[in-house]
Amino acid sequence: MNYKTIQYTVEGKVGIIRLNRPEKYNAITQELKEDMLHVLGVIQNDKTVRAVILTGNGKGFCAGADLSGFTGPMTPFDVENDLKLTYANVVKRIKGLHKPVIAAINGPVAGAGLGLALACDFMIMADTASMRYAFINIALVPDAGSSWFLTRAVGYHKAMEIICGGEKIPAEECKKLGLVSQVVPVADIMTAATELATKMANGPTAAYVSTKKVLRYAVTHGLNDTIDKESEEQALNILGSDNMEGVQAFLEKRKPEFKGKGFDHS
After folding, report:
1. pTM of the model
2. Burial level of 85, CB count in 10 A (0-12/13-18/19+)?
3. Would the CA dihedral through 110, 111, 112, 115 be positive or negative?
4. Is 95:216 a contact under the CB 8 Å cutoff?
5. Residues 187-198: tens digit of each pLDDT
6. Residue 2: CB partners within 8 Å, gap ≥ 6?
7. Which of 10, 43, 105, 134 could tie 125 with a disulfide, CB 3.0–4.6 Å?
8. Cα–Cα dist 124/38, whole Å
9. Residue 73 lies in a domain
10. Structural domains in the chain (count)
11. 240 and 127 housed in the same domain
12. In this structure, is residue 217 part of a structural domain?
């Protein structure tokens, strides 16, 4: 379907979401959140799409919330309700997609836009792009999950420094901090993202999903519980058709042809 604030296309097995408010650096409105919730639901249920790219049109990835959209009186309850029921659900849907998600950070990303980017499984960043925890500059705290992702990536003290500093973090510094996996020339950002997405789309999708679950679980659980979680996920994948194909291909010394299926995934 056609969306007003995003564009969604499918190329082969790869779904591409483009935030599409370039004149506002893809700042987030209520309509954009609703469009994102809908398209993520469509992607979750589309078994032909086995990898996803999230990027922005124009010069920016996402500038965060569109502050010009706040009109009329608001109460703390209104704000909390919006963050919990809309922003949070967009981030959770990205994080919980049953396929790998790649953020192609084509330009500056700030504020709540960081939650969208950091919720992805892989992040590729243009050399001209930057991240900015700009909340503190208008006397706010991070939201949309951006504090959770940052703290787990860089630790408490570095996260405090970044958040309370409110300064731009250039692409190369983001890579050094482990926030992104690749930095490429801005002209090559979609090429690099598409190459990775295509590789993922032709891989063992169910095993990728289980890996996401295990790693997310490990962040907040101890060793014994994580071993149990690994065992649960391994049991599902070891009986799956992709594992059988992988083993057979190894024995026959050929490249496996994965269908993206585990034991209980289809």
Report:
1. 0.91
2. exposed
3. positive
4. yes
5. 999 999 999 999
6. none
7. 105
8. 24
9. yes
10. 2
11. no
12. yes
